[in-house]
Design brief:
Length: 216
């Protein structure tokens, strides 16, 4: 569903090309779950910042983590207003006119504020990060010890004030440009997987998520 009436708040309502806006949980979750990376925008004493960082989802929250010493984590842990964006670039849209060129994409923007994940929930949400990177690896890697967990700030922001925007079609040229003699269409793009590069001394039993990495 993508009716503007479903936008959870006025500031999260997609106005420009509003037909590309989506507010349903399934669409937003799918875009978040396909991402390893987000950008977080906020303002601190240094001025406006927009920093890339790892992202994952647990239920109806997006999560980020970092060293307790990170200025971003310290600022966001205090509830500083923030905006998180995720973008998947799916194609370059070649129109007949230069003006009508575009891009195909799936993106999510979340407004709100982060809060620290309580100590009692930290281990489980960090497990969920490992699940996101490689299902099964949480049971294989050495678990974080008390000091490592204590040195890590984990923050979550509710996906309540969230909007998705999707463009997934060919060029939209003006009627008078339709006969212009130039190739038009979409040059698709995707994030590719290459063959794994093993460290020396790995055990012989290569996990399924490594064996299947490049073919997934
Ligand atoms: C790969 C890519 C390339 C783009 N290239 C251009 C470009 O060259 N020029 C351009 O003007 N725009 C581009 N956009 C669209 C851009 O992200 C904005 O949607 C657009 O500029 C409208 O801005 P606005 O301030 O009028 O937004 P409004 O529609 O007023 O935004 C209102 C609210 O809608 C939500 N929203 C807006 N944009 C997005 C989004 N992309 N994803 C999720 N939620 C959103 C936010 O909650 C925002 O606060 C691109 C988007 C992507 C993903």
């Amino acid at each position: 569903m993508n009716t503007a009436a479903q936008a959870p708040s006025e500031r999260s309502r997609v106005r420009r090309t509003e037909d590309r806006g989506h507010y349903d949980r399934a669409t937003i979750h799918a875009i978040v779950d396909a991402a390893y990376l987000c950008h977080v925008a906020f303002v601190d004493e240094r001025g406006p910042l927009c920093l890339p960082t790892a992202v994952w989802r647990v239920g109806d929250h997006v999560l980020i983590h970092g060293s307790n010493g990170s200025k971003m984590m310290k600022s966001l842990a205090q509830g500083t207003p923030a905006c998180l964006a995720i973008t998947h670039l799916d194609g370059l849209v070649m129109a007949r006119s230069a003006f009508s060129h575009s891009m195909n994409f799936r993106s999510v923007v979340v407004h709100g504020a982060f809060e620290p994940v309580p100590d009692g929930e930290k281990t489980e949400v960090m497990h969920r990060l490992m699940d996101h990177l490689a299902p099964g690896r949480r049971d294989e890697a050495r678990a974080p010890d008390r000091n490592e967990l204590a040195a890590t700030t984990v923050l979550r922001m509710p996906l309540f004030e969230a909007a998705a925007k999707i463009r997934a079609w060919g060029p939209k040229d003006k009627e008078e440009d339709m006969n212009w003699p130039v190739w038009a269409g979409v040059l698709p793009l995707h994030q590719g997987r290459l063959a794994p590069v093993a460290e020396p001394g790995c055990p012989a039993n290569t996990p399924a998520y490594v064996r299947q990495w490049a073919s997934a």
